[in-house]
Amino acid sequence: MTATESEVPESAADTEPDYRFTLANERTFLAWIRTSLGLLAGGVAVHELVESSRIEFAHLALGTACVALAFVLAVGAYQHWRTVQSAMRRTRPLPRPALVPVLCVGVGVIAVLAVATMLFS
């Protein structure tokens, strides 16, 4: 008896993608992780080095926003790497990157917080 396609496990349908695409996916993942690490370092620096302003919680909010965005980007980068790798192995269309709008909005919020901190300090 031969196995039909529906009986073949999903992992058996996977094909090894061209190594260049796998390496490009990995480089993209590492770029998101570098961005996340930069935000994490910035958040810690703001919290530890910036003097308190008249608005006592302003630098804490700014540091917390940086660290929170770093966490979201790190987790999102891993999820995006996995979904792209899976799509390449199954020769399916690549998913759209959801991290780009998250990063744009997050950096916008951090910029507004930074300007508010500077204006009111």
Summed up, what is this model?
The chain is mostly helical. The chain has 3 helices and no strands.
Q: Would you mind describing this structure in some detail?
A:
It is a multi-pass membrane protein. Keywords: Cell membrane, Membrane, Transmembrane, Transmembrane helix. It comes from Rhodococcus jostii. Pfam families: DUF202. The chain is mainly α. It has one domain (18-119). The protein is built from three helices and no strands. The protein has helices at residues 19-49, 58-89, 99-119. α1 (19-49) packs antiparallel against α2 and α2 (58-89) runs antiparallel to α3 (99-119). The termini are far apart. The model is unreliable at 1-9 (pLDDT under 50).
Share of helix, binned: 55-70%
Low-confidence stretches: 1-9
Gross geometry: elongated
Q: Helix segment count?
A: 3
Strand residue content: under 5%
Report the mean per-residue pLDDT as an integer.
Answer: 87
The total count of strands amounts to 0
End-to-end Cα distance, whole Å, is: 78 Å
Q: What structural class is derived from the secondary structure elements?
A: mainly alpha
- Radius of gyration (CA) equals 21 Å
What's the structural domain tally? 1
Major sheet description: none
Task: Name a few traits of the molecule.
Putative membrane protein, disordered N terminus, membrane, 121 residues, 0% strand, 3 helices, transmembrane helix, mainly alpha
How does the SSE layout of this entry go?
Elements: H1 19-49, H2 58-89, H3 99-119
Helix pairs in contact: 1-2, 2-3
Domain DUF202: 20-86
Protein name: Putative membrane protein
Subcellular location: Cell membrane
